[in-house]
Amino acid sequence: MKTYPNVFIFDHPLIRHKISILRDKNTSTKEFRELVEEIATVMTYESMKDVELVPVEVETPLERTVQYRVRAESVVIVPILRAGLGMVSGVQRVFPTAHVGHIGMYRNEVTLEPQEYYCKLPADIENKTVFLVDPMLATGGSACDAIVALKKRGVRNIKFMAIIGAPEGVEKVAKAHPDVSVYVSTLDRCLNAQGYILPGLGDAGDRLFGTK
User: Fold this and answer.
1) Which residues of 173-183 are buried (b: 16+ CB within 10 A; e: fewer)?
2) I need a surface site. Which of 8, 17, 29, 147 has the fewest CB within 10 A?
3) Inter-residue contact 185 to 12 (CB < 8 Å)
4) CA–CA separation, 212 vs 210, rounded Å?
């Protein structure tokens, strides 16, 4: 796959270990959900290396000092429904005060194109750093449409995070939205004729919520 300056593919041994368990068809719903949350947490730490800090005055047991913190309530998490819900708790471990919006997309099984059916976002989202999350970046259609929905509402700082990506989807998002940082923990081989990632892990939503 061509290299894009806004795409970051993780090569973290701990994530690779957890991905190997996610892929296993015998992994239970409970363990699958926990692993998705854990991977999302690790990805959040890595993707926030450029986060803006503001100075604050702190009194230690010995003296007053100026330190730096992430601006309060500066982060919003927006999962693409429904599978993106599985990553929310993982991001909230890093930003427990983050507000959460929701974008609902479903894939037309004939055209494989995404259809929006729901969008509810926190007020003042245009001034926040938005984590748009979905475990699987397959064709890239849902991700692109969700990014467009956020931009229409004035959001300027978007970080898209997916646990597993196909080259087709990663390239589509990178080309369509060069101003969006795309973080993918694992890049898989390709899509099959039905638009599923190979080797992948099946339907992430079904495995997260026990509907497989």
Assistant:
1) bbeebeebbbb
2) 17
3) yes
4) 6
Q: Sign of the C-alpha dihedral, residues 165, 151, 181, 132? A: negative
Integer Cα distance of 123 and 183 in angstroms: 25
Residue-level pLDDT at 73? 81
R_g of the chain, CA atoms, integer Å:
18
Domains of the chain: 7-209 (3.40.50.2020)
Residue 188 near residue 165, CB atoms below 8 Å? yes
- Supply 76's token pair: 């919003």
Give the residue from 126, 135, 179, 187 showing the smallest Cα distance to 161: 135
- 156-205 per-position pLDDT tens digit: 999 999 999 999 999 999 999 999 999 999 999 999 988 899 999 999 99
- pLDDT of 102-156, one tens digit each? 999 776 777 767 778 899 999 889 989 999 999 999 999 999 999 999 999 999 9
Point out the residues that are catalytic: 107, 111, 203, 206
Mean pLDDT over the full length of the chain:
92
Q: Any residues with CB less than 8 A from the CB of 116 and at least 6 apart, and which?
A: 103, 104, 105, 145, 146, 149
DSSP state of 32: H
